[in-house]
Design brief:
It is a single chain. This protein is mostly helical and 128 residues long. It has one domain: Rna Polymerase Sigma Factor, Chain: A (Orthogonal Bundle), CATH 1.10.1740. Helix content is 73%, strand content 0%. Helix 1 packs across helix 2 and helix 2 runs antiparallel to helix 3. The chain is rod-shaped. It starts with 8 loop residues before the first helix and ends with a helix.
């Protein structure tokens, strides 16, 4: 049925416990979702090590932001996947920024290869 909030009372109770600082409740979520989060991150990033870092940060955010989670039809697993997705996108953006920084300077489009060779020839003659 559409429009009816989905509520898993056990997850809701666990989230309340995590928000109150219950490490055992947090560990249940880690045990339940870690494999899924790492697999998802590996698919998006193509790198298991980075995906494991993303998973670690995902569960750190679960711990620090559990009080912000609202059970209005959103399951904890979906919430964790959204956090992981956003962290993967951030990682891909950072990777792209690093790659862009590594690009060599572009050649002057106004200067053709022939012009460049001519300038080199002139420089050699002047230097001689």
């Amino acid at each position: 049925m559409r429009g009816v909030p989905v509520r898993d009372d056990s997850e809701h109770t666990l989230m309340t416990q995590v928000a109150a600082g219950d490490q055992a409740a947090c560990r249940i979520f880690v045990d339940r979702y870690l494999g899924q989060i790492v697999a998802y991150g590996t698919r998006l990033l193509g790198d298991r090590e980075t995906a494991q870092d993303v998973a670690q940060e995902t569960f750190t955010r679960l711990w620090t932001h559990a009080a912000r989670w609202e059970p209005r039809g959103v399951k904890v697993g979906a919430w964790l996947h959204r956090i992981a997705h956003n962290l993967c996108i951030d990682s891909l953006r950072k990777r792209r920024e690093v790659l862009m920084d590594e690009l060599p300077e572009r050649a002057d489009p106004a200067c053709s290869a022939e012009d460049e060779l001519h300038h080199q020839d002139v420089s050699l003659v002047v230097a001689a």
